[in-house]
User: Fold this.
Amino acid sequence: MVAELARADLGLPPGGHQAVSLQRVRRQEEDLPVVTTDRGYQYDYSRGNEQMHSAQGRQRKAATMQAILQEAIGDRLAAAAVLNLGCSTGFIDEFLAGHVASVMGVDIDQDAIALAQERCAASNVRFQVDDAMQLSFADETFDVVICSQVYEHVPDPNQLMKQIHRVLRPGGVCYFAATNRWALMERHHKLPFLSWLPAPMADRYVRLLGKGDAYYERHLGYRELLKLASAFRVDDYTGKVLLQPDRYGAAYMLGGTAKARIAHFLYANLRGMFPGFIWLLWKPEPHDRSANEQ
Assistant:
């Protein structure tokens, strides 16, 4: 019921995935996708998703975010106003609150927001239901935006990036963690080659394997992601994290130094098929044209 009220507040269709169309469109590597407005089960994504309720798992991710941002912006992090898109149950926000001035966590999942509000006691954290494609905040409100594994969940990633650019202050930065469409193993459903398939085939694949009624995520390839981020200056931290996982609190992702070195070799030589990336996306100052010169 709470999730239905959230959908109504945002002007979204009622009924979750039962009420939305399963129609999808084909995409090409060279062009960003034309997409529908379906959200499916993502209106209540946290329900039954153990990862969203794992304090240890979410805090590990937050520690990596904090380490990278601390290195990138130094003392400014302590005074930063942070927006976390797709905050879910709020564990990441609660961790970051100890290192920044304020955190605003937003999600379309009303139940997750309600849980985050009940659970998180930090005085400098707020949560609210909001749509990442039409954020309710004024222009140039935040110093840092967190967009970690979110782009594939929204119907229009271009609009998502426009909103991030809009609410960031000039010189601000977006922590952008993104999965690659051409990864061998799809990370949400743990099915090989799932994200490679045309949408109708992907829908049938997840139904056949009992993983859901449709494949709602829409991933982009490496070149598509660069195009998606073209309004920003891209600082790729993936290689740094692979070379020094302990420095960035990322050893848990890689399972040891040897695996990290292998991963770095693959990243350096097969980047187009590497499973995912960690980028810092810098909003240029008015005099900085570097975002368009990549």
User: Anything to note?
Assistant: Strands lie at 81-85, 102-107, 125-129, 142-148, 168-179, 233-236, 276-282.
